[in-house]
Amino acid sequence: MKQILAAVNSNTELMPGVNIMWIEAPDIAIAAQPGQFITVRCEGLTLRRPFSIHKVAIVSEANQSQVALLFNIVGRGTLWLSQLRRGDRIDILGPLGKGFSIDREGANLLLVAGGIGIAPIVFLAQNASAQHSVTLIHGANTAARLCQPQSLPEPVRFVPVTEDGSIGQKGIVTDALPHFLDWADQIFACGPVDMYRAMADQIVTQGPSLPVIPRDENGQTTRVRTDSANDKLKKCQVSLEVRMGCGIGACYACTVKTKKGLKQVCRDGPIFELDDIIWREVRI
Questions:
Q1: Signed CA dihedral, 42, 50, 67, 154: sign only
Q2: CB-side exposure of 128: number of CA atoms within 13 Å?
Q3: Closest Cα partner for 128 from 114, 112, 150, 110?
Q4: CA gap 126, 135 in Å, rounded
């Protein structure tokens, strides 16, 4: 973890209300893992603001390596960030948190992003595509809000989903998910809490078939979940985005309830197993 005063290399409006900013931060770029984040001190705000690491660029001249942030302009902090120009400097701290974990034996990786949840997913695709078969499903309101396929590593299969049907499948991202569950060895996701709740239901109900086992002497039967079905659920990791205070585990503002007890998103996450979170208790 490093706190540095980093120079802005570029700051571009990628689509209406969404910017991509490249920052010269070699120590952070070299150390960062997909799913980790940084915090930024924004002018006029007391608390630092967390941002997922969207991409990294490691160059031969190590002191020129960069990280990219992808962010919606939704408040004072992100508005201030959007107005920075090349050469401006910002106070950043990172990399923070725990990143995604890929199983060595997993060949097929399914990446699922809802809206601006694409931010950490692109970094994961960037790292994983050389050794794994990667499919990325991205859902958004309209085609203009989708990730551009040319920004992804070439081997990645891109599956667009739009609510207005302007490109790809019409609907929401979880409408496309069942088509890939049998193919995927692992699933990684970032998006809104409602998307995660739907995914938890889908992966249970759409996972491996549950055998029908006799229940009693009257012949009544029930479906009993097997270890293989539970394994299917536990192969899904999600990036949990909640309000943070300090971003380093000191204030407990980002605490969530899990099946393993209370956890801090900034320190124990932001990556969690989908089945570990008690979703009815999560408040964003």
A1: negative
A2: 32
A3: 110
A4: 12
DSSP-assigned states of every residue in 82-114: HT--TT-EEEEEEEESB-----TT--EEEEEEE
Alpha carbon distance 202, 92 (integer Å): 38
C-alpha dihedral, 231 to 100 to 270 to 51, nearest 10°:
-150
Q: Which residues pair with 221 in a beta bridge?
A: 214
Residue 66: pLDDT over 90: yes
CA-based nearest residue to 90, from 7, 22, 12:
7
Give the DSSP letter string of 100-153: ----TT--EEEEEEEGGGHHHHHHHHHHHTTTSEEEEEEEESSGGGSPPGGGS-
- pLDDT (tens digit per residue) in 225-255: 444 444 444 489 999 988 888 888 888 889 9
> What are the residue boundaries of the structural domains of the chain, listed by start?
2-96, 108-281
* CATH class entry, domain 108-281: alpha beta
Nearest alpha carbon to residue 21 among 33, 13, 30, 29:
13
Query: Do 92 and 3 contact (CB within 8 A), yes or no?
Result: yes
105 burial level (CB within 10 Å; 0-12, 13-18, 19+): exposed
Q: How many Å is the Cα radius of gyration of the chain? A: 20
Among the ranges given (18-32, 49-63, 114-128, 152-166), the one the predictor scored with the smallest mean pLDDT: 49-63
Half-sphere exposure of 212 (CA within 13 A, CB side): 3
CA distance 111 to 161: 13
What is the CATH topology of the domain spanning 2-96? Elongation Factor Tu (Ef-tu); domain 3 (2.40.30)
pTM above 0.85, yes or no: yes
